[in-house]
């Protein structure tokens, strides 16, 4: 990590460590030592401790007195809770945003999804299309609390994605094909501007997302147990 040169030291440490956890650089159960982090960031121990306290409130670490913190693990219950929250929040946000999403946004996203269909193993494009689709449901909202709640569960979803990839669970062609089909179906329903027609495909997509995440975790657990 580069030495921080900024007035917002605490915020940058918090964001930096959080990003490393979400991207699975700091893997589940990794011990984050205060002295080591302070040395990496080129700061004293105090802002590191404060950052770790915030990360514990996010559910990403567990504080260990006089040592630092341990990155939290990922279990089936975490996956189920995250997708339950997404099923509660995203359909509601979609209903609010349906008439605010522009045709240009839909056209641009549809072009990306069709490009992904031609290049199904372009990982960066896959991530981009997924984020673009789901951000449509909150990017036009004025309710900051709702926006922050959705962003938080999306961050946790991203952590699960990186965890699965780092654990050697590949996105095989059937999964990618299914996700593309689900995304195009949702996109078509958004174009109708009918709240009743968006609910079912979005709910189904989120249910399938939970199932895929649970299957990925099961495969990664099996892989680790065999090694």
UniProtKB/TrEMBL annotation:
<dbReference type="GO" id="GO:0003677">
    <property type="term" value="F:DNA binding"/>
</dbReference>
<dbReference type="Pfam" id="PF00392">
    <property type="entry name" value="GntR"/>
</dbReference>
<keyword id="KW-0805">Transcription regulation</keyword>
<dbReference type="InterPro" id="IPR036390">
    <property type="entry name" value="WH_DNA-bd_sf"/>
</dbReference>
<dbReference type="GO" id="GO:0003700">
    <property type="term" value="F:DNA-binding transcription factor activity"/>
</dbReference>
<dbReference type="InterPro" id="IPR011711">
    <property type="entry name" value="GntR_C"/>
</dbReference>
<dbReference type="InterPro" id="IPR036388">
    <property type="entry name" value="WH-like_DNA-bd_sf"/>
</dbReference>
<dbReference type="Pfam" id="PF07729">
    <property type="entry name" value="FCD"/>
</dbReference>
<feature type="domain" description="HTH gntR-type">
    <location>
        <begin position="7"/>
        <end position="74"/>
    </location>
</feature>
<protein>
    <submittedName>
        <fullName>GntR family transcriptional regulator</fullName>
    </submittedName>
</protein>
<keyword id="KW-0804">Transcription</keyword>
<dbReference type="InterPro" id="IPR000524">
    <property type="entry name" value="Tscrpt_reg_HTH_GntR"/>
</dbReference>
<dbReference type="InterPro" id="IPR008920">
    <property type="entry name" value="TF_FadR/GntR_C"/>
</dbReference>
<keyword id="KW-0238">DNA-binding</keyword>
């Amino acid at each position: 990590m580069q030495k921080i040169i900024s007035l917002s030291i605490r915020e940058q440490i918090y964001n930096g460590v959080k990003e490393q956890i979400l991207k699975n650089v700091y893997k589940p159960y990794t011990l984050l030592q205060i002295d080591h982090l302070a040395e990496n960031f080129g700061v004293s121990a105090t802002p590191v401790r404060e950052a770790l306290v915030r990360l514990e409130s996010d559910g990403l670490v567990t504080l260990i007195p006089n040592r630092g913190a341990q990155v939290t693990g990922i279990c089936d219950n975490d996956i189920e809770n995250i997708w339950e929250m997404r099923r509660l929040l995203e359909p509601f946000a979609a209903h609010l945003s349906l008439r605010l999403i522009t045709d240009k946004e839909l056209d641009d996203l549809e072009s990306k999804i069709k490009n992904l269909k031609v290049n199904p193993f372009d990982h960066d494009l896959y991530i981009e299309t997924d984020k673009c689709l789901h951000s449509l449901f909150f990017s036009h909202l004025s309710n900051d609390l709702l926006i922050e709640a959705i962003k938080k569960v999306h961050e946790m979803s991203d952590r699960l994605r990186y965890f699965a990839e780092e654990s050697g669970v590949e996105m095989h062609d059937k999964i990618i094909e299914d996700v593309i089909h689900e995304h195009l179906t949702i996109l078509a329903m958004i174009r109708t501007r009918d709240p009743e027609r968006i609910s079912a495909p979005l709910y189904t997509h989120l249910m399938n997302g939970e199932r895929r995440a649970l299957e990925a975790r099961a495969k990664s657990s099996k892989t680790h147990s065999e090694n």
